[in-house]
Structures are given as C-alpha cells and as structure tokens.
Amino acid sequence: KPPFIPLFFRVCGKMTHINSMLDVGKWPVFALLPPEELRLIRQACVFGSAANEAIYVTVSDEVFALGTNCSGCLGLGDTQSTIEPRRIDILCGKKIVSLSYGTGPHVVIATADGEVYSWGHNGYSQLGNGTTNHGLTPALVSTNLIGKRVTEVACGSHHTIALTTEGEVYAWGYNNSGQVGSGSTANQPSPRRVSSCLQNKVVVNIACGQLCSMAVLDNGETYGWGYNCNGQLGLGNNGNQQTPCRIAALQGINIVQVACGYAHTLALTDEGFIYSWGANSYGQLGTGNKSNQAVPTLINMEKERMVEVAACHTSHTSVAKTQSGQVLMWGQCRGQAVAYPHLTHFTSTDDVFACFATPAVTWHLLSVDGDDYLTVAQSLKREFDSPEISDLKFLVDGKCIHVHKALLKIRCEHFRALLNETDEETIEIHQFSYLVYRAFLEYLYTDTINLPPEDAIGLLDLSTYYRESRLKRLCQETIKRGITEENAITLFSAAVKYEARDLEEFCFKFCVNHLTAVTQTQAFADMDHDLLKNFISKASRYGAFKN
C-alpha cells in the first residue's frame, strides 16, 4: 500500500484545503467580476438554492457579497439582490477560518479569534440568537460560548453545530428529528453543548446532512444523531436519534474525516479507505447500485489511496481525491446517476461541485493562493538548487546541489560555524544520501519537506545529528501521515532510535489499533529482541491483549 499523505491540514482546528490553481471563475456567480478582482480573492463560498449567492474574502481581508440575497443571507443589512459585490463591513479584518450555510439560507462563520457570527434565515432559531427573527447583518453568537474558542462550524438545512478547541460540540436551531442532540425534538434557540455520549470525549471533525449531525473523535470513533430514515447515521436501523450514537459497525476502524451529503455520509479512514452509508437513489454511495445502506459499506476503489472526501448537504454528489491528485466523482452528476466512482480530469474536489453538482455550490470554504506576485518565500524556493547565482555546491553521491552561503548561515547554526571556517566552493558529504541531504537543504529554503515517509526516516536522522528541532518535528509529522500496517513497526523502531517521543507514541498506538495485521508483517518478525520485549510489555499495560 502506498503511504497515506492527507491533502487537508488543520488551521485553528479546521480542516482546510489549499489549491493554488483553483479558479473561482468556474462558478457562474463570479462570471461578471473582472480578472483583476478575481486575482484578489483568497477565500470564497458559493451557496443558495440556485448557487446564486456568494461571499468572498480578499487578500487585504475585506469581505464582499453578491447575489440574490434570499432572507438577507448576504449580511448586507437588507434583502436587496446585488449583481455588484458589496462589502460586509462588520466582517472585514475578522479572518474567517470556517464558514457553513443552510438551505434557508442562513450563514455561520468562525473567526481566527474563535468567535461565531451568524445571519440570514432564522425561522427555526438556526442563528442561535434566541429569536426567530431573520438576521440581516452578521451578529455575534455568544450564549454559552463566552470563553470558548470555536474552530469549525457546520450547518444542516436549518440547524448549526460548532466545534471548540477543547473538542466540545455545541448545537442550535431546527430539531424535529433530534439533529441538535439535546435528547428532545424541541427547537434549540441558542447554543447548547451536545453531551450525552460525547461527554468527556474530544471531537476533531464535524459535518451536517440536511437533518443530521456527525462527529469524529480524536480516537477515530464516529458518532451520529438526528434524522435517520435513509440510514444516514450508519447505525444499522432507520430510527431517528435524539442524542449522539456511536457507529458500532466502524469499531476498530479509525476515521479521520466525514462528509455529509443531503442524506448520505462518506468517511475516510487513516489508511485511505472510504466507507459510505445512507440514501443511494442517485448512486451516491458508490456501491454500483441504488439501494440505501444503513451500515457503513466499504467502497471498492481500484485506484490508489484516498486522501480527501467531499459532499454537501444540498446535493447528492460524492467526490474523492487520490494521493497522486486524481479526482473521482459519483452520485448525482449534472442530472445523471453515476453509481460507481468515475475518474475525472479535475485536480480539485471543488471543481466537481462547480461543474457537476446540483446546485453548483461550494462544499466548504475555498482557500485560494494568489499567483499575481512572488513573495520572499516563493522567490527563495525558486532559487533553490539553481546554479545561476549560487556560490556554493554540495557534492553528494556524485550529484551537485547548488545553494547560497548567506542563506545557509542565516538558517542553520551548523552551516554558520562551518562556512565561517572555510572558503571552499564545493563541499563533499558522505554520511547522508543525496535524496536526504537535498531534502534538508530544500527545507532551509522552503520551511517544508518533500519526502516519502520511509525516506523521511533518514531526514529524521540528519535533523537529530544537526540538532534541527523544528525539522525533526516536521519529519515526525510526515512519517505519521504515511504510516501503514506494513511499515508501522519500521517507523516505530526509527522513532525509538532517534528519540522522537511523540512519533514513538503515535506509532505505538497505531500498532495497537491494528495489532493483528501488524504482528503478521515481516518487520514485526525482524524486530529487535529488546525492542520487541518492551513493545509487548507496553502493549499489555495498554490492554491490547484483553479479550
């Protein structure tokens, strides 16, 4: 199995996807914006029953809205439609980290400061302000959230849930099927903590279908509550749930991301597999038929590992992305029912929703890298290993790597000392491979590492040797993302050898969670005797061998 390298990362607790090639002009609502204005957009969201509303954030952190403005969902203080972008003054400078919307529509955001703002349709108290009056301008949601930092928000049709830095979930709004998780079906006018089975648990990912809610815990367990007549909670039945229920069928399977469609759910595992359940009238479960499934069903992907799943509560479309960047879609695709995952030419899951979803909304807050100028970091990255203006080269395994003395002195204490003692224009390196040493030098230019997890072990060795603590942490994170049942023991052994405590604990827990498969690998058979003895002892204390 190839290593699992997720393409999403966490910004203030929210899963955010960055794609420098994303073209927001693919959404018709942006068609009238001039190219110079489109280039300034850094975040965007398209929503509404006909995808005729949009909110976007510019490079200077100004927030604008345009479209039909149903129920005042643009937050402009009125219900007038606007074909020209108008600025939402109260949101400018707030640094939005998460945005979601309902079908009213209502809109909810979380800011970098952990505040929550809401506006738009409020017939079911989905704005969380204690009333049922529509909100024409963004208003702070404060009840029961004072002192809490919200990192992610998710909206169903007419309800809202929010995730805090502590892993708590709060919910409010429409509750006819128990989607607020309060234990009743009475609408919830203001934020209320979802406790019950989630008490003392840490939630790391949330999602909403039209009338249901889902949560993933830090240990990979998945819980669902709310409407369940199509089996979208994955509980093996069709009964609504008024409080969170663990999906027992996923026992022993570690989920890292969930995405909800109108009445179906997709879940991505830590090994890059996808499970689906719920409604299937358009083939949105990817099982090859149109039969609903009340329990999670593994989708047969004959492709490589998956790194992202995408769905939206307004549609019946399902999308996934592979590790090499291929995008597959299935379900309702421009009116057609596609029952198997279909390979597209797209490079982003967002493109599928722009071109094939009905309506053509965005499934999450888009984040767009600008390409109108080169930053200092981009300029340095471009000059790495370029002989044109370099003044030093390293010779490793007979290959040259071109660099700049001044930058190496600034970035690394080892090189500052070394280069102050020598005027050599070529330095030979023997203790590390070309691949590892080039990755190290590239890191000094880019602050990132570009290596497969197995090769990152060599870079972990180098970072320990050169006492580069930040590089050591990045190596550990890279190795974590590539862990599999086959290589888990190898990575665990490397973590012990290089005293990477956090990585050691991560690999150990993965091995315990996948103990049967891990103990059948060749790496386990070849494990150092003392290390094996310590592993078994620790696993026993961890309870791994209890029936």
Automatic annotation (TrEMBL):
Record bears the keyword Glycosyltransferase: no
RCC repeats: 61-112, 114-166, 167-219, 220-271, 272-323
SMART domains hit by this protein: BTB
Highest taxon above the source species: Eukaryota
Keywords tagged on the record: Repeat
Domain BTB positions: 390-453
Pfam entry (one): BACK
Database matches in PANTHER family: BTK-BINDING PROTEIN-RELATED, RCC1 AND BTB DOMAIN CONTAINING PROTEIN 2
Protein name per Swiss-Prot or TrEMBL: RCC1 and BTB domain containing protein 2
Annotated source species: Sinocyclocheilus grahami
